């Protein structure tokens, strides 16, 4: 079974992903900068909104895997100082205690290697806060000097359950061979989740490569409202923002052979 994970930035986006066939969601804010840690309020609202949906029947063999929260204290690189790591650890602790089913973390050294000390801190904080939580290493993985060496190190450490990766390329669809290699190297010990610029047309080839999951944002741009355009007349639509596109989620699920959980978007 190839799982479908949708990156969402709102409670409504999470419900849309659930209804249209996703197996789990990654909750974040600020997709415009590739995602940041969401607020406590957003997580609480998202969990509450899903609570009424998750008890409903689901397809055999595809249990709902819940809300996995991105932990990224700032935009930019993934080399963190002591204060930033302390912030990230506090965020991990808070979201696990609030009921997140997983955390999505990552940190690198100046030399482009996995920061094992930082990863150990974040993963152990997560499991001390909620023993059943799963840990994903995010696309900082693709910025390592060698993705095969990075995966070997993660396998040896035994701290993460899955890796989100574009196979070291700008988009996962350009790295089918590399992703197949990672899946073979992992041999089921760590899930390989293909993500980064995934198009609907890429899904069959990515699935055939043997990845364990597909990750995409399935977003569309929503028009802004109010008077902000008048305040910034040089912008096309300064109030525009991203929302989860139900049609794109449903099509991604269909490409994986998954029907909408409740017959499609409500």
TrEMBL record:
The keyword Cytoplasm applies. Signal peptide: none annotated. GO terms for cellular component: cytoplasm. Gene3D superfamilies: Copper homeostasis (CutC) domain. Its main location: cytoplasm. One of its GO terms (molecular function) is copper ion binding. It holds the Pfam family CutC. It is found in: Cytoplasm. This is PF03932 family protein CutC. It comes from Actinoplanes regularis.
């Amino acid at each position: 079974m190839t799982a479908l994970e949708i990156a969402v930035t709102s409670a409504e986006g999470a419900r849309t992903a659930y209804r249209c066939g996703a197996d789990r969601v990654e909750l974040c804010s600020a997709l415009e900068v590739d995602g940041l840690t969401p607020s406590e309020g957003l997580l609480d609202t998202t969990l509450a909104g899903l609570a009424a949906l998750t008890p409903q029947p689901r397809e055999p063999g595809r249990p709902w895997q819940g809300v996995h929260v991105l932990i990224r204290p700032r935009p930019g690189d993934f080399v963190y100082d002591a204060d930033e790591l302390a912030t990230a650890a506090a965020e991990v602790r808070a979201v696990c205690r609030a009921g997140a089913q997983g955390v999505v973390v990552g940190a690198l050294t100046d030399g482009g290697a996995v920061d094992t000390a930082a990863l150990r801190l974040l993963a152990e904080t997560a499991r001390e806060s909620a023993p059943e939580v799963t840990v994903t290493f995010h696309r900082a993985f693709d910025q390592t000097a060698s993705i095969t060496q990075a995966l070997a190190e993660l396998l040896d450490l035994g701290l993460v359950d899955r890796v989100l990766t574009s196979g070291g390329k700008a988009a996962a669809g350009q790295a089918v061979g590399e992703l197949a290699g990672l899946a073979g190297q992992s041999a089921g010990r760590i899930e390989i989740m293909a993500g980064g610029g995934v198009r609907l047309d890429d899904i069959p080839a990515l699935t055939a490569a043997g990845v364990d999951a597909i990750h995409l944002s399935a977003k569309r741009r929503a028009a802004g409202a109010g008077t902000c355009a008048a305040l910034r007349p040089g912008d096309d639509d300064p109030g525009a923002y991203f929302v989860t596109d139900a049609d794109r989620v449903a099509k991604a699920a269909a490409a994986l052979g998954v029907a909408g959980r409740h017959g499609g978007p409500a």
